[in-house]
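[step 3/7] inverse_fold.run input=structure_tokens len=391
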């Protein structure tokens, strides 16, 4: 990192290097903006940042992953005066760190961030793959700023600040899961987070003799271009209709039985299916944690599979590529559970596979996927990792 920094910005005195992870969500998909539970873990893959403070108020950003964009220059004045709710598409990838600086300017007193900086980023998370490369760069930037300006902000509040940046500056109406999982990751643990109360607990990831394999469809996903925001408003509309007959704050507040009793008030089939996914996925997530706690991997895997079916049929966020990868996985020996992970519409799947079958799994699924789609899938056998650190 330091060598790269020198080659772009010259000199390496006072440069510090930081890291923040990506995340994979094991179960609890599209529940985080519906007041439900999620169960992600941080990864060892992530984003590195090499940073040097400046004497003036200039900000310079460079990403090894987007070297074609060169150095992107801005200033503290520019980022703090931008209007809320503008989607800064022209900033390219730099909208993420700029959004975080903008959020600090919105939420903290003036003059707290009083020097510019030169930052170089490098990430080994495949971009747009559903492993939260954007939350990773956001949380990394916030963590750097906290350290550099000695700001009193907790990791939890860092995650909320970054979600605010993503909602208001980047323009994606995401929930809290990604930023939270990245900021509060803990090695060998997944995080059970109640997104309504933000209460959370760490669950040891005792996968016994199995491994987590992430498979990338290599079909890129752009959250902004996807139907993400549309799904969110569909759920909000379904909730409003349910609230005419039941006193609830979110779709996470009802059981699937209660939902079945009152669902007809929603009227439209498509809205009923969206809400049904949110309600059932939340219950599945709670059940999955119990399964993990009682060492019942088979049940955990079954719940993952059911999650995928619900995302495919009721929530309709999978599509040809994700379905092909997951359906190929389901046929393999040693498979415990497989589903899409993240927002969907392309990106990655997460698979739990008996360690004796890992190679055969990768070979077979890769071949079937290639035959069905003409694309090469990439596979990563991953370990869960910790949160942001100074290296
Ligand atoms: C994206 C969003 C998250 C969450 C997932 C779907 O990753 O950023 O907030 O909604 O999709 O579970």
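[step 3/7] decode complete -> sequence:
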């Amino acid at each position: 990192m330091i060598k790269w920094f020198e080659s772009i910005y010259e000199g390496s005195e006072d440069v510090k290097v930081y890291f923040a992870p990506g995340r994979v969500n094991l179960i609890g998909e599209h529940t985080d903006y519906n007041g439900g539970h999620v169960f992600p873990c941080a990864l060892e893959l992530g984003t590195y940042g090499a940073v040097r403070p400046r004497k003036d108020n200039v900000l310079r950003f460079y990403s090894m992953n987007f070297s074609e964009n060169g150095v992107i220059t801005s200033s503290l004045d520019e980022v703090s005066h931008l209007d809320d709710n503008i989607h800064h598409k022209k900033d390219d990838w730099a909208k993420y760190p700029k959004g975080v600086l903008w959020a600090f300017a919105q939420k903290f007193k003036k003059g707290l961030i009083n020097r510019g900086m030169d930052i170089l980023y490098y990430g080994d998370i495949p971009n747009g793959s559903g492993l939260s490369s954007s939350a990773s760069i956001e949380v990394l930037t916030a963590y750097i700023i906290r350290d550099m300006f000695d700001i009193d902000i907790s990791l939890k509040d860092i995650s909320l600040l970054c979600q605010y940046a993503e909602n208001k500056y980047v323009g994606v109406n995401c929930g809290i899961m990604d930023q939270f999982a990245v900021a509060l990751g803990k090695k060998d643990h997944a995080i059970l987070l109640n997104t309504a109360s933000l209460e959370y607990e760490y669950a040891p990831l005792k996968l016994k003799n199995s491994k987590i394999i992430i498979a990338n469809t290599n079909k890129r996903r752009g959250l902004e271009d996807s139907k993400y925001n549309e799904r969110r408003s569909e759920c909000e509309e379904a909730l409003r209709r349910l609230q005419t007959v039941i006193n609830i704050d979110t779709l996470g507040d009802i059981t699937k039985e209660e939902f079945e009793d009152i669902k007809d008030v929603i009227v439209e089939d498509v809205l009923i299916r969206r809400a049904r996914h949110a309600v059932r996925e939340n219950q599945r997530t709670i059940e999955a944690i119990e399964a993990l706690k009682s060492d019942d991997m088979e049940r955990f895997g079954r719940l993952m599979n059911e999650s995928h079916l619900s995302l495919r049929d009721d929530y309709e966020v999978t599509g040809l590529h994700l379905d092909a990868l997951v359906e190929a996985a389901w046929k393999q020996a040693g498979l415990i559970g497989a589903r899409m992970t993240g927002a969907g519409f392309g990106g990655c799947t997460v698979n739990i596979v008996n360690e004796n079958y890992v190679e055969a799994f990768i070979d077979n699924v890769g071949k079937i996927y290639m035959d069905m789609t003409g694309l090469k899938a990439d596979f990563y056998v991953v370990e869960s990792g910790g949160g942001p650190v100074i290296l």
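[step 4/7] annotate
The pocket of alpha-D-galactopyranose is lined by residues 29-30, 32-33, 174-175, 177-178, 342-343 (CB under 6 Å).
The first strand starts at residue 16 and ends at 27.
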